[in-house]
C-alpha cells in the first residue's frame, strides 16, 4: 500500500525507540504519581505544598517546552556544576534521557491526581479496621490501600498512557530517532510527505490499539467481582434456554 522506498526498516527501528521511550517514562511517571498523591494526602503541610506546586507547575507547562528545557538546559546545568570541580569538557544530555525525564515528569503530575482520587475513593473504615488490628500506617498503606488503588486508577492511567504514547513524537525535535524522526527524513528525501506521515499515523494507531486492548484486559483482571457476575449471568441465561427447550 505504501512505497517507503527503503525507509521501512528505519520506521520499524523508530517504533522500537518510541516503545522504549513510552515504557521508560511510564515506569518513572507511575512512581512520581504515587509519591505525589501520597504527599498531597499527607498530614505534613510541607509535603502537601510541594506536591501542589509540582502538579500545578508541570500541568501548566507544555511537554514540548519541558523537553527543550531539559535537553538544552540540562547540558548547561551539568556543565556549570562540573566546572566548579575543574571539568571543562562539553557534556550533552542525550535526547532519549531528556525525553524520558520530560515525559515522566509530565505524566507523574497528571498521575498524581488520578492516584489521589483513587485513594480517596477507598472507605476510611478500611484504614480504621486495619489500624484496630494493630497494623502500622505504612503497613496499612502498602498492604491494604495500594492494591486497591491500582484497580480504581487503571482507567485514568490508561488514558494518560495513551496521551504519553503520542507525546513521544515531541522528542523528535531534539534528534531522537523515533517514528516521527524517520518519517520526516523519509518525507524530505523522497518528497512524499503524505506517504510517510500516513505510515507514521498507522504505526501510532496500531500501538494505540494494542495498548487499549491491554488496558481493557488489565481492568478485567483487576475486577474479579465483575468477572464472577458475568459468569453467573451466562449460567442464568444458559439455564433459562435449557428450561425453555425442556
Main β-sheet description:
none
Percent helix among the residues?
over 70%
Average of pLDDT: 85
How many whole angstroms does the radius of gyration measure?
24 Å
Number of helices: 9
H/E topology pattern = HHHHHHHHH
Give the tally of β-strands: 0
Class inferred from helices and paired strands: mainly alpha
Domain count:
1
Span between N and C termini?
Answer: 55 Å
CATH homologous superfamily - what is it? MetI-like
How does the overall form come out from the CA principal axes? flat
Low-confidence stretches: none
The CATH architecture would be Orthogonal Bundle
* β-strand amount: under 5%
The CATH class: Mainly Alpha
Please give a structural write-up.
InterPro entries: AA_ABC_transptr_permease_3TM, ABC_transp_permease_HisMQ, MetI-like, MetI-like_sf. Pfam families: BPD_transp_1 (PF00528). It is found in: Cell inner membrane; Cell membrane. This protein is an all-alpha fold and 246 residues long. It has one domain (8-245): MetI-like fold. Helices cover 81% and strands 0% of the residues. It contains 9 helices and no strands. Helix 3 (63-83) packs across helix 4 (95-121) and helix 5 (124-132) packs antiparallel against helix 6. The radius of gyration is 24 Å and the shape is flat. The protein starts with 7 loop residues before the first helix and ends with a helix.
Amino acid at each position: 500500500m505504501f512505497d517507503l522506498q527503503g525507509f521501512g526498516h528505519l520506521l520499524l527501528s523508530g517504533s522500537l525507540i518510541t516503545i522504549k521511550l513510552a515504557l521508560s517514562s511510564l515506569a518513572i511517571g507511575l512512581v512520581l504519581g504515587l509519591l505525589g498523591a501520597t504527599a498531597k494526602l499527607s498530614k505534613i503541610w510541607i509535603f502537601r505544598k510541594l506536591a501542589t506546586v509540582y502538579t500545578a507547575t508541570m500541568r501548566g507547562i507544555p511537554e514540548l517546552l519541558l523537553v527543550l528545557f531539559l535537553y538544552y538546559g540540562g547540558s548547561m546545568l551539568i556543565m556549570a556544576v562540573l566546572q566548579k570541580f575543574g571539568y571543562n569538557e562539553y557534556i550533552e544530555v542525550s535526547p532519549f534521557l531528556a525525553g524520558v525525564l520530560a515525559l515522566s515528569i509530565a505524566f507523574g503530575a497528571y498521575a498524581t491526581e488520578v492516584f489521589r482520587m483513587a485513594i480517596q475513593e477507598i472507605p476510611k473504615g478500611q484504614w480504621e479496621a486495619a489500624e484496630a488490628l494493630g497494623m502500622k500506617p505504612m503497613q496499612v498503606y502498602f498492604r491494604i490501600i495500594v492494591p486497591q488503588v491500582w484497580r480504581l486508577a487503571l482507567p485514568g492511567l490508561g488514558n494518560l498512557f495513551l496521551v504519553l504514547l503520542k507525546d513521544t513524537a515531541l522528542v523528535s525535535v531534539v534528534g531522537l530517532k523515533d517514528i516521527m524522526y524517520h518519517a520526516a527524513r523519509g518525507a524530505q528525501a523522497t518528497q512524499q510527505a503524505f506517504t510517510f506521515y500516513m505510515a507514521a499515523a498507522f504505526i501510532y494507531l496500531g500501538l494505540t490499539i494494542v495498548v487499549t486492548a491491554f488496558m481493557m484486559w488489565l481492568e478485567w483482571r483487576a475486577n474479579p467481582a465483575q468477572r464472577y457476575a458475568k459468569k453467573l449471568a451466562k449460567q442464568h441465561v444458559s439455564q433459562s434456554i435449557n428450561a425453555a427447550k425442556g
